[in-house]
Design brief:
heterodimer; A: alpha/beta; Rossmann fold; 6-stranded mixed beta sheet; 4-stranded antiparallel beta sheet; 7 helices; 10 strands; 33% helix; 29% strand; globular; B: alpha+beta; 2 domains; 9-stranded mixed beta sheet; two-stranded antiparallel ribbon
């Protein structure tokens, strides 16, 4: 499904080079849930962005269904991100001037295979238990509700891969539990592939395989 | 339910920072309003000059030398005045080489128009037998030439055709009104025959508390048509050479004087407009540079969810166009309103003729101003929009955090 081949990424800060991802090889199969744990600054988020085609590796390849992401032009890569990938961030990523419903529908403004995005968005709102909050603006929602709306947004175009970066960060235990249940449900229903960067042991335990990241290197951790 | 699209997103983005959006709208409004106001004003003055000099119909205006300035002011600003010279100049002017037609005019002392309004009126008496400046207009618009106590009123006079108006104790019937020219000499005048003027003067002794004295051997001005063999300027020189104490003003000279005044004004207006435009360009450009900077994370997220570079570019451009379009419309209304309110004051201060351009020209100017305003938005946001579209998604998300 998604494969990393010898991925490397180095940042330069004030003339000094920092290698955050170093020669990573990873194969994630369709429908599989993979969790990546690691300390802050270990390169987890950068790895996720490399796999999601939002940052270009210095070396190596990212293959999605056999296609090398960085061999594509920007338009084609954007289409691919729009249709096949869904991102969930560790921060509040909703547009403050759009309602929950419009926030969920936002990716369809750039392309969609969904016939009626609004209907699908309403169905997703029902699934996350916020059907009555469709017309609410982010400031009228709690942190947990905002995170759930962001998750629904990631699913609007029925992506094949979800890349979640600390999806339960900053949330209370009850909300964490709701989100974990939501992931389980979606995974069971649609067979979506999940790559989750997390500190949360419970989320990590959801995964079919667990990886730990340290100093830019990735290592599988047995259960 | 309305589908989410770039337009909706742009509108919502602008609503997010309402104060900033309103300030940018005002900048765009001031620029488009100023440009429109200035353009219509300049067109209006040129229009008035064109129509006014055409309506004057004479190549040369001969007046007493000492009253030259009064004559120019009367012609351009319509300031009522009266001055006299000997009627004998008519024959002498007629004999000057290059002169084809001559016709006298009598400017009668200013009189308050006391019918219903308080408007200064300029009474001009013409000689229907020789007139070639007012009569051609009358022949086209009034069935018969002026007779008896008939008068023709300029467009700015608050009288209707058929109305009776008194001057110095004599009643006159308005048989026609003139089309607007923008020159107050025509728009704010009442034209009557010389015979009617003399009768009015005679009657005023017994019928008016303000007696009028007119000497039949005096006239105020002579309008001259040249035969084309010599230029009006040369004929004017010859008239001044042949006659003492007169000033012969070629109409081209009057037009050129106004054009010179207009040219200075035009340069000033263009300079102020250019500075305003440059400031607007810079302010909108800078504002959008800031907008792109503060929304980096959001733009990065849009790219991560599938927005192409052109989507981001269009989004920023759309916001700039919306601001300059709405600001432009606001400015057009503002500029137009101010022009209506202030054009008389400005013209009176500058002593220049003014006539609102035709509705078609005004429509074209409105459309051009709006297009210009929108183009300003497009140009100013071009660089920020381009930079926004080139942001690497992850870098933008990280930098924006």
């Amino acid at each position: 499904m998604i494969e990393a081949r010898d991925l490397c990424k180095t940042y330069r800060v004030e003339g000094q080079a920092f290698t955050v991802v170093e020669g990573i090889n990873l194969v994630v199969r369709k429908g599989e849930t993979v969790s990546i744990v690691g300390h802050s600054g270990s390169g987890k988020t950068t790895l996720l962005s490399l796999l999601g085609g939002v940052t270009k590796p210095d070396f190596g390849q990212v293959m999605l269904e056999g296609i090398d992401l960085w061999s594509l032009g920007d338009d084609r890569l954007s289409e691919l991100r729009n249709r096949k990938l869904g991102f969930i961030y560790q921060f509040s990523s909703l547009i403050p001037t759009l309602t929950a419903l419009d926030n969920i529908c936002l990716p369809t403004a750039f392309g969609t295979a969904v016939d009626n995005p609004a209907d699908r968005a309403i169905a997703l709102l029902e699934k996350i238990g916020l059907a009555d909050k469709a017309g609410f603006y982010p400031c009228q929602l709690s942190g947990g509700q905002q995170r759930r709306v962001a998750i629904a947004r990631a699913f609007i175009n029925s992506p094949e891969v979800i890349l979640a970066d600390e999806p339960t960060g900053d949330l209370d235990e009850e909300t964490e539990r709701e989100i974990i249940d939501l992931f389980r449900e979606i995974n069971a229903e649609s067979g979506t592939t999940f790559l989750i960067v997390t500190h949360n042991k419970e989320i990590a335990s959801l995964a079919d395989r667990r990886f730990a990241m340290k100093n830019g290197a990735l290592k599988e951790v047995p259960f | 339910m309305k589908k989410i699209n770039l337009f909706k997103l742009a509108v919502n983005n602008l609503r997010r920072k309402l104060v900033r959006t309103i300030l940018l709208l005002l900048v765009a409004a001031v620029v488009s309003g100023t440009l429109l106001g200035a353009t219509i004003f300049i067109f209006g003055m040129q229009n008035a000059l064109k129509i006014g000099t055409y309506r004057l119909g004479a190549d040369i205006l001969v007046v007493p030398a000492k009253n030259e300035e009064q004559a120019r002011t009367a012609l351009l600003a319509g300031k009522p005045t009266s001055f006299y010279m000997d009627r004998g100049v008519l024959d002498k002017i007629r004999q000057v080489e290059g002169v084809k037609l001559v016709s006298p005019q009598l400017f009668i002392e200013p009189s308050s128009f006391t019918c219903c309004y308080s408007v200064d009126v300029f009474l001009v008496a013409i000689d229907p037998a020789t007139d070639f400046t007012v009569m051609p207009w009358l022949e086209k618009n009034v069935r018969n030439s002026l007779t008896g106590n008939q008068v023709v009123a300029g467009r700015s006079m608050p009288v209707m055709e058929g109305a009776t108006i008194p001057f110095f104790g004599t009643s006159f019937k308005v048989v026609g009104t003139m089309a607007p020219t923008g020159m107050k000499f025509f728009d704010q005048s009442i034209f009557m025959t010389m015979d009617a003027a003399y009768r009015m003067a005679e009657n005023s002794a017994t019928q008016s508390p303000q007696p009028l004295h007119l000497d039949k051997s005096k006239i105020s001005a002579v309008l001259v048509k040249t035969d084309g063999t010599l230029s009006p300027e040369r004929v004017a020189l010859r008239i001044m050479h042949a006659l003492d104490d007169v000033k012969a003003i070629a109409s081209d000279e009057v037009v050129n004087t106004v054009r010179r005044q207009l040219s200075g004004l035009l340069t000033g207006i263009v300079a102020v407009s250019a500075v305003l435009w440059a400031m607007c360009l810079f302010m909108i450009g800078f504002a959008f540079y800031m907008i792109v900077n503060e929304r980096q994370r959001e733009l990065g997220m849009l790219r991560a969810m599938g927005a192409k570079r052109r989507h981001v570019f269009r989004l920023i451009m759309l916001e700039a166009v919306l601001i300059t379009l709405v600001g432009g419309l606001l400015g057009l209304a503002l500029g137009f309103g101010l022009l209506f309110a202030l054009s008389d004051t400005i013209c009176n201060t500058l002593q220049l003729p003014y006539l609102m351009p035709s509705p078609l020209v005004v429509q074209e100017l409105l459309a051009a101003s709006l297009v210009f305003s929108v183009l300003t938005g497009l140009v100013s946001a071009l660089l920020p929009a381009f930079l926004a579209s080139r942001l690497e998604p992850y870098e933008a998300i990280r930098t924006g955090e």
